[in-house]
Design brief:
With 205 residues, the protein is mostly helical. It is 72% helix and 0% strand. It has one domain (5-201): Tetracycline Repressor, domain 2 (Orthogonal Bundle), CATH 1.10.357.10. The longest helix has 30 residues, at 5-34. Residues 129-137 have low confidence and may be disordered.
Length: 205
């Protein structure tokens, strides 16, 4: 019996998604320059023809992943960090609990998250340049969070909001890298101590 239009569209969407996930993993592991269409095709278990049916080249699939990686991560930041019913410390804790719980239970999320926190270096590599920590744009919502938390007196102002963003970024990037590179859950390092992370930023009595 011939497949319906809805069934065919579902199959197409699933095939494209499989190729995108394969590309995501290859870019995270090899970077833009090191990744080849052949690597993505092999990872996805598809033909070159099918890849080129959806994407013109590796840059096009890379740009698609850039768009996807930012959406869910920024939405989570906005949801947790702007919750005015909670203290600043609790907001940060809630965001980290969500990130680490999801990261350590869903490896696809880990790849997307690692891509998100590393995207400026990956994108600069794709564009043929380099980017330093100082040149990388920080999520405005994260900067505003630390700025407001310091102005409220709840967080220490010993370091600038930019420095706090950079430190948190390194902690999260390291954790996501661990879950991406270590495929066996038994070999993964345990998730970071969230209370300890929050205490780094909290103003001491």
């Amino acid at each position: 019996m011939p497949k319906t239009k809805t069934q065919l569209e579902k199959i197409k969407a699933e095939r494209k998604e499989k190729i995108i996930l394969a590309g995501l993993k290859v870019f995270c592991e090899k970077g833009f320059e090191g990744a080849k269409v052949e690597d993505i095709v092999a990872r996805a278990g598809c033909s070159h023809g099918l890849f080129y049916h959806y994407f013109k080249n590796k840059r096009e699939i890379f740009d698609e992943i850039v768009k996807r990686s930012g959406g869910s991560s920024l939405s989570a930041m906005k949801f947790y960090l702007t919750d005015e019913t909670q203290s600043y410390a609790q907001r940060l804790k809630n965001l980290l609990v969500y990130n680490f719980d999801t990261m350590y239970s869903d490896q696809n999320f880990s790849y997307y998250f690692y891509f998100f926190v590393s995207r400026w270096f990956l994108k600069a590599n794709a564009d043929g340049g380099n980017v330093t920590m100082q040149q990388r744009p920080l999520p405005k919502i994260l900067y505003e969070f630390f700025k407001n938390a310091q102005e409220s007196g709840e967080f220490s102002a010993e370091h600038s909001p930019e420095e706090c963003c950079a430190l948190l970024h390194c902690i999260i990037q390291g954790s996501s890298l661990n879950t991406v590179l270590v495929t066996s859950p038994k070999k993964n390092l345990p998730p970071p101590n969230i209370d300890l992370i929050v205490d780094i930023f909290r103003k001491k009595p």
